[in-house]
């Protein structure tokens, strides 16, 4: 039911992949999710570090470029997305800044399915205890920590 | 050769991205497309620039790949940095695929009235040199001062363009005035060297002189007026640095003249 809120997209250069992005508010089990994040078939992102769909999608595009033409630097396409959100190539730093934290109340789940991947989007609702809302720039802006993003992305004003 | 390069680009980007060739240089081909690489349902009249550095057959493939990657990444990083400089107008970078040599950026500029073509500075000055127009119009003066200010901002912040011709300055009409944007940073650098800055100024002066010779002195004076404004806004330090750049500009000019006398 809540899947009407989800943003599904196919990037024109990578038609074999389907991208789905969901935004959850009032998440109560961030700590639990974090303990098993490696096994989950999606990327979980701290919404405080994201201010727009453009920011998310540019990283997803970059992750697809990396796995298609370079070599995958992390375990999965999903962790590659987290790495691509980060301006540095340090994986630990990327996870620390953009990944899920225990105190996370708002989070973004990104799933990229390749031609041979199992669709696991249905599991999202079971795993994440929270309310799925529409992925709008306006909502992302409400939840984001602009000072933090500027600091992490090296954009001082 | 040309069609082969286009086919290579099409093969990599796939059938969903239509490309229109607008420029072909030694280093890169420039296309426009209506397809955004990752944002859905874009605006109908929006278009984007795709700059493609094709592989060079005469280079060893692994050296060629490494060079393409380095140059594409270098230009992208520079563009991303410049976009954050307050007051500086450069195209926004949208995406980069350094492995295949692609940079996507915002398309800038428009068609000039009366068939004068694309709104780069060169065509704009041609337009004002037409019989029914005044080459010394206030609009020309104000635009050239603004162009000078853009170059001043670029240099003051420690960057150089490397190929500052009047085709690499693009104008957009914003609220009734022409706003200049600097494009093509393929030869750009993070550089505080007075030599690089002097050469930038010299290259632009030569470009104006060769295409608009009758008005070049006045045009170059306006450019320098704008350029100096930026430096003069920074007090004594600014003025001292300005003097250094202008002195070197003069030296580069003298060298250029000597070279052309020798042949
Ligand atoms: N961002 C841009 N917006 C509009 N035109 C561009 C842009 N970048 C490049 N061009 C055009 O492509 C030509 C060659 O580009 P370049 O290879 O970057 O010098 C330029 O002279 C412009 O006419």
TrEMBL record, chain A:
Record's subcellular location: Nucleus
One example of a Gene Ontology biological process annotation: tRNA threonylcarbamoyladenosine modification
One annotated Gene Ontology cellular component of this protein: nucleus
Keyword terms, alphabetized: Nucleus, tRNA processing
Superkingdom in the source lineage: Eukaryota
Main subcellular localisation: nucleus
Pfam family, one: CGI-121
Homology family: Belongs to the CGI121/TPRKB family.
Its job: Component of the EKC/KEOPS complex that is required for the formation of a threonylcarbamoyl group on adenosine at position 37 (t(6)A37) in tRNAs that read codons beginning with adenine. The complex is probably involved in the transfer of the threonylcarbamoyl moiety of threonylcarbamoyl-AMP (TC-AMP) to the N6 group of A37. CGI121 acts as an allosteric effector that regulates the t(6)A activity of the complex. The EKC/KEOPS complex also promotes both telomere uncapping and telomere elongation. The complex is required for efficient recruitment of transcriptional coactivators.
Name the UniProt record assigns to this protein: EKC/KEOPS complex subunit CGI121
From TrEMBL, chain B:
UniProt cross-references to PANTHER family, sorted A to Z: EKC_KEOPS COMPLEX SUBUNIT TP53RK, NON-SPECIFIC SERINE/THREONINE PROTEIN KINASE
Enzyme class: transferase
GO terms, biological process: tRNA processing; tRNA threonylcarbamoyladenosine metabolic process
Gene Ontology MF terms in the entry: ATP binding; hydrolase activity; protein serine/threonine kinase activity
Keywords annotated in UniProt: Activator, ATP-binding, Chromosome, Cytoplasm, Hydrolase, Kinase, Nucleotide-binding, Nucleus, Phosphoprotein, Serine/threonine-protein kinase, Telomere, Transcription, Transcription regulation, Transferase, tRNA processing
Protein name, as recorded: EKC/KEOPS complex subunit BUD32
Domain Protein kinase: 16-263
Family statement drawn from the similarity comment of this UniProt entry: Belongs to the protein kinase superfamily. BUD32 family.
Main location: nucleus
Subcellular location: Chromosome, Telomere; Cytoplasm; Nucleus
SUPFAM superfamilies registered for this protein in UniProt: Protein kinase-like (PK-like)
GO CC annotations, alphabetized: chromosome, telomeric region; cytosol; EKC/KEOPS complex; nucleus
Biological source species: Torulaspora globosa
Subunit structure: Component of the EKC/KEOPS complex composed of at least BUD32, CGI121, GON7, KAE1 and PCC1; the whole complex dimerizes.
Cross-referenced InterPro entries: Bud32, Kinase-like_dom_sf, Prot_kinase_dom, Tyr_kinase_AS
Reactions catalysed: L-seryl-[protein] + ATP = O-phospho-L-seryl-[protein] + ADP + H(+); L-threonyl-[protein] + ATP = O-phospho-L-threonyl-[protein] + ADP + H(+)
E.C. numbers: 2.7.11.1
PROSITE patterns linked: PROTEIN_KINASE_DOM, PROTEIN_KINASE_TYR
Pfam families referenced in this protein's UniProt entry, alphabetically: Kdo (PF06293)
